[in-house]
Design brief:
InterPro entries: AraC_XylS_family_regulators, DUF6597, HTH_AraC. The chain has ten helices and six strands.
């Protein structure tokens, strides 16, 4: 069962997932990156451009999901270097630093809170996320066009694309598609009819949403709704974060 709450880390979400008898849901692109704990390891889930295939492993997870653009400063690596990847944290930070942290989280009675404490301590010594890129993500998530977003933050198209690769792992057009799809899926999970969800999220019609769903996830809207209803509690208003059901 998947559950989440707002993290003490600004803009982040703390979540945990326990294996259950229901069907597993593929991890869908969401524009985010995650710090993960599973089976005694600390991992990093990079930004996805496609649904992550399931590997059949059913394990407990805890995670801190960073909002779009926030994780590269925390991990110290451009987002595009981790695109569509799950890597051990020891590939980014010294192993002598990571291993005691992994043991601390593993031994904690509340692993999600222990992982959050690790993130809070490290974030205090990390540079803050770029506020311009945060504004880019917020503008695109509100449905603004890429051109309007670039103008609002005072960037040219090439500069915005280059900085988006570092911050989000892909260009602003891809980020806009991913965020639009997530807006639509949040409405679908709330029971909004597909056609209404498509228009409210910014798609031209239901067929447009269906094409985007297949392109970015490989699922149909109907199949996704079935999996979501079986796997997540009714009060969960966001999709399972990147990395929550896959391993490195």
């Amino acid at each position: 069962m998947y559950a989440e709450r707002t993290s003490l880390l600004p803009g982040a979400v703390l979540w945990h997932n326990e294996p259950g008898p229901g069907p597993a849901v593929p991890v869908l692109p969401d524009g985010c990156m995650d710090l993960l704990w599973t089976e005694g390891r600390l991992l990093v889930a990079g930004p996805d451009t496609r649904a992550q295939p399931l590997d059949g492993v059913r394990a407990a997870y805890a995670g801190v999901r960073f909002p779009p653009g926030a994780a590269p400063a925390f991990f110290g690596v451009p987002a595009h270097e981790l695109r569509d990847l799950r890597v051990d944290l020891t590939e980014l930070w010294p192993a002598r630093q990571v291993r005691p942290l992994a043991h601390r989280v593993t031994d904690a009675p509340d692993r999600a809170s222990a992982l959050e404490a690790v993130a809070l301590r490290h974030a205090a010594d990390s540079p803050p996320p770029d506020p311009l890129l945060r504004a880019v993500a917020e503008g695109l998530d509100a449905g603004a066009t890429v051109a309007a977003t670039a103008a609002a933050v005072g960037m040219g198209a090439r500069q915005l694309h280059r900085r988006s690769l570092d911050a989000f792992g892909y260009g602003p057009k891809t980020l806009a598609r991913v965020l639009r799809l997530q807006r639509a899926l949040a409405l679908v999970r709330d029971g909004v009819p597909y056609a209404e969800a498509a228009l409210a999220a910014g798609c031209s019609d239901q067929a447009h949403l269906a094409r985007e769903m297949r392109s970015l996830t490989g699922l149909t809207l109907g199949r996704y709704a079935e999996l979501a209803a079986a796997s997540w509690p009714a009060n969960s208003d966001t999709a399972a974060p990147s990395g929550s059901r896959t391993t490195a």
